[in-house]
């Protein structure tokens, strides 16, 4: 096989693994998920959308795409860009990310299934909350408990389509669906198949369309104009956004050597610091969750030793 094709296959494999990995980090839990859609996939879709309207094309040269987006040399007809063409351009990245989020939902399912089959009680707060919720189902009064019970009843009674419905919308309680499926021994492919279709196809297209519409050319221009209309501070806030958008247009047309506006540095600096803060918070939450679990095991062991004395 030609070395060029081997390198291309390797690059595509690494790209798929990158987006799947980000999807897993977004939903795997460990205290809290890393919001990789807001930090990585969302900005990527937004960049492709802005570039598509500026270049009137999605045929970006590869390479450097997807590492860098530049306009193709051929001229395109004004208004040739459609919503569907942008959706198609980012479909692989979005679907791989969605597959990763589906894989990240498996640990609660396997944990609850193993606990039900073995009869042992796992050292997991969410599972313990789930068991308490089942015990006090008839007396639940607060909104959070009723919402959890609604998810549990939907998944338990409707099955595949209930799981699909929960997975197809932004749902912070979906971990409960995985625990419910594991606890009631729902077959693996029923759970994972519905989760995969819901997250990687239905939910992913909803999120993609929302980002593409939000960052379409006329919406962005309206948002920048709205910022400028804010009394007092509007013009000073509007200027860095205008400079940033102009800098992106220059980059798309190979004009970045003309100098980078100060506004771009400011916005880029803010976003970079936001990413660093969120990643650090994610790491600290994992450490905190592990420390709490360790302390709980130590306390349970001490209590059991006292009872045996």
Automatic annotation (TrEMBL):
<keyword id="KW-1133">Transmembrane helix</keyword>
<feature type="transmembrane region" description="Helical">
    <location>
        <begin position="176"/>
        <end position="197"/>
    </location>
</feature>
<protein>
    <submittedName>
        <fullName>Vacuole membrane protein 1 isoform X3</fullName>
    </submittedName>
</protein>
<feature type="transmembrane region" description="Helical">
    <location>
        <begin position="266"/>
        <end position="287"/>
    </location>
</feature>
<feature type="transmembrane region" description="Helical">
    <location>
        <begin position="209"/>
        <end position="230"/>
    </location>
</feature>
<keyword id="KW-0472">Membrane</keyword>
<keyword id="KW-0812">Transmembrane</keyword>
<feature type="transmembrane region" description="Helical">
    <location>
        <begin position="16"/>
        <end position="41"/>
    </location>
</feature>
């Amino acid at each position: 096989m030609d070395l060029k094709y081997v390198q291309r296959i390797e690059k595509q494999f690494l790209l798929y693994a990158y987006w799947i990995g980000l999807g897993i980090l977004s939903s795997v839990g460990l205290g809290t998920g890393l919001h990789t859609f807001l930090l990585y996939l969302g900005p990527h879709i937004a960049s492709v959308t802005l570039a598509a309207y500026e270049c009137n094309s999605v045929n970006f040269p590869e390479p450097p795409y997807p590492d860098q987006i530049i306009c193709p040399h051929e001229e395109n007809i004004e208004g040739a860009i459609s919503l569907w063409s942008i959706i198609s351009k980012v479909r692989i990245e979005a679907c791989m990310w969605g597959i990763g989020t589906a894989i990240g939902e498996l640990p609660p399912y396997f944990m609850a299934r193993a606990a039900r089959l073995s009869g042992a009680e796992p050292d997991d707060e969410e599972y313990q909350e789930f068991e308490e919720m089942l015990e006090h189902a008839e007396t639940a009064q607060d909104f959070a408990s009723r919402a959890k019970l609604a998810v549990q009843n939907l998944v338990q009674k409707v099955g595949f389509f209930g799981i699909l419905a929960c997975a197809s919308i932004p749902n912070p309680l979906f971990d409960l669906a995985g625990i419910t499926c594991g606890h009631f021994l729902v077959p693996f492919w029923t759970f994972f198949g519905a989760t995969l279709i819901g997250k990687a196809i239905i939910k992913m297209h909803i999120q993609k369309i929302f980002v593409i519409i939000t960052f379409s050319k006329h919406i962005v221009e309206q948002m920048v104009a709205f910022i400028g209309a804010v009394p007092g501070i509007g013009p000073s806030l509007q200027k860095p956004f205008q400079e940033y958008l102009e800098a992106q247009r220059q980059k798309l047309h190979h004009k970045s050597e003309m100098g980078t506006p100060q506004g771009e540095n400011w916005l880029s600096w803010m976003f970079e610091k936001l990413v660093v803060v969120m990643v650090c918070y994610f790491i600290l939450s994992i450490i905190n969750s592990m420390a709490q679990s360790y302390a709980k095991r130590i306390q349970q062991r001490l209590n059991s030793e006292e009872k045996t004395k």
